[in-house]
Amino acid sequence: MRFLRAAGLLGLICCLGQAPHLVWAQTDPEEVVTDDEEDEPEAEPEPEPEPEPPPAKVPDRKPPPKPTPAKAPPADETVTEEPDEEAAPPSEAPPSEDEEDQAELAPDAGARPVREPPPRPSEPRLPDPPPPPEPVSVISEKDLLERIEARGAAVRSGDTAMADVELSLIEETRKQIGAPNVVLASAQLIHEAQQAIAAGLTPRAEVLADAAVRLSPDLVAGHWMRTRAYAESGLGRLGPLLGAMVQLVMAQLSNFRNLLSLLSSVALLLGCGLLGLAVLFVALQLFKYLRYPAHDIAEVFPGFISAGEIAIALLLALALPAVLGLGVMPVLILGLVLVAGYQLPRERALGLGLIVFLGASPGLLYLASPLITFHGSITDALATAAGEALAGDAEQRVAELAGPNRDYATSVILAYRQRQRGDLLAAEAQYQAALRRNPGSVLAQNNLGVVLFLLGREDAAEKAFQQAAGPRAQAEPALNLSSIYFERGDFDLGKKTLEQARQVDPSLTERYTQRESTLPLKSKLLEARVGQAFLWERLVDSGWPEGEAVMAELWQPIGRRTPPLAMPLIAVLGLVAAILVARRSDRLSTPCPKCGIPASRRAPAQFCTQCHSVFLTSVAVEPALRRHKEDQVRGYQVRRRWYLRLFSLVAGAGHLFGGRPFWGALLLVPFLACTTRIALGDRLSVHSWRIFVDGSGNTVVAVIAGGISLLLVLIALRTVAEK
């Protein structure tokens, strides 16, 4: 019995010794954090080998998984681990009350939360960077290009209805992005209008030409095509035809590039006319007066040298500068000096004026050099970027040529282009840069307000419009403010602002109020267009080295080896020599008014000796000699009349030969300009839009130039006959 009691007591002691072990086995040993290890970083547990099976009362368990760096739970919560179904067989009994009491007495053993170590004070956690701004979706040139391509596809497939729908969408997109000229779309419409006229579809051609003008109001080719389409309709469309012609002229004179192209063409034609006048005047004066200096020089030399030989020698001397490669300018000046003592006073005055013109020709070329250097310059790129949509190349050239030191105009143009491309953040930055350089710019402030509104910053946009609006400012800021007020429901303030805009620009206000009221506010805001004043300022602001290079290049065909800067000195020497020769003209011979033979200026009526004897004296003259002299006089007068008529076929040349030089110059310069225009055609100046010019426009200009030339010839023949 004692043995049985001792065995039972020993078994009870063994059971009590196994209970704490069972409670400890239900908790991961790696999750136990003691008070001493609370502030130390948690170490990566090493994998333990597979434990051998414990005694029968201890269930088999897999090794505990490695702890994951999950976020620690709050301090008031405990970490409880779900029991592993495979490791806990159903035969295991729940813990006894003694085991629960022991778990409560040791809270750090199984119910303590797992926390990450706090950050060290020496390594503060930096705040997360703000997320990048989301891109704003706006209508841009990309949408415009897609519409143009879609319309091209519809035209190629023969779907006219879809092409017209896409055309209306192109026009609406153009208005929304504020593009002044969509040359690409207009060129396509011009080509289609040409095909329609060739097919006899004149009404369709008119519709297409009108659309080309609406898309590109500054494109002269569109106006030419519309004028041609109206002309094909006959007199029934006389009113629209005249209106199209007026708008054609306005487009040529109002746009910077068009006007610059016109000026360069006119300058070239005028230069050709003046140079042709100098050449023809010298040639005619030598033809008329060369025999007289030859006669005077022959009087000095022995009798075996005749006047004809002296005339040939003088011609060779005049041609010597050209033979030496000095160009035609010295030849002309020497010719005018040679005949200065024999000319009529009016002819001499024109000759001296031409010497001054020849001497000043290098300076005139230098003044005209901006018309040449414009092409490819930053001014050219600015004009293209400001006046044409889809001008990415021009924008790139502006950024490259301007560099980091951009002025107000460059910043505004770049902002304008970036707004059309849809890059509103870049446009905002450029407008801000423009305002730093010109804080009072109404244009930059208004357009900045439009960009801010599109970005969703409506309060900042309203403030920008308020700063731009004023009694003497442009109408666009006030109109934009009125739209904001009306959209908000503040009708009194909206009407007041609208009346303020009406006082500044009534026509723009009227067009703005007639726009579709259902359009969203973003589509109704107006951007101020960039003016052309800064382009003209940049055009004349060219440096001396660049202008000198252009002058030398233009001078080389006519001046050859003669230095441009030496030409004024040559002209001054020629002018002095001509004046000295003219002052001694009383010692020189003069043409006899009857037969043209050299005569003395001191003779009665400046007749030659033969004419004086035959026609002035009362001395009897042999009849045969008299008839011979009369035949000479008659032949001379007939030849003179025929010379006048023949030279008058070149309008003004007959007047130059007949002693009416100013009338001749007035007729000859426009005649030579018109004939040069006919000969050179459309190759006089460079224009980025010239590749789209309709051939009919060039033909019309050539016909007009030919008509003017013919009219000048008729005027010259009539006035010469009257003389």
Structure, described:
The protein is an all-alpha fold and 723 residues long. Helices cover 65% and strands 1% of the residues. Strand 1 (589-591) and strand 2 (598-600) form a beta hairpin. Mean pLDDT is 80; it is low at 12-114. The protein has 33 helices and 2 strands. Among the domains are: 2-41 and 55-110, no CATH class; 141-259, Alpha Horseshoe (Serine Threonine Protein Phosphatase 5, Tetratricopeptide repeat), CATH 1.25.40; 378-530, Tetratricopeptide repeat domain (Serine Threonine Protein Phosphatase 5, Tetratricopeptide repeat, Alpha Horseshoe). The chain is elongated. The protein has helices at residues 2-25, 97-105, 107-110, 141-157, 160-177, 183-198, 202-215, 220-232, 238-254, 256-289, 291-300, 307-323, 329-339, 345-367, 369-373, 378-387, 392-402, 408-421, 424-437, 442-454, 458-468, 475-488, 491-504, 506-513, 521-524, 533-540, 544-559, 567-583, 609-616, 623-647, 653-657, 661-680, 695-722; strands at 589-591, 598-600. It has a two-stranded antiparallel sheet with strand order 1-2.
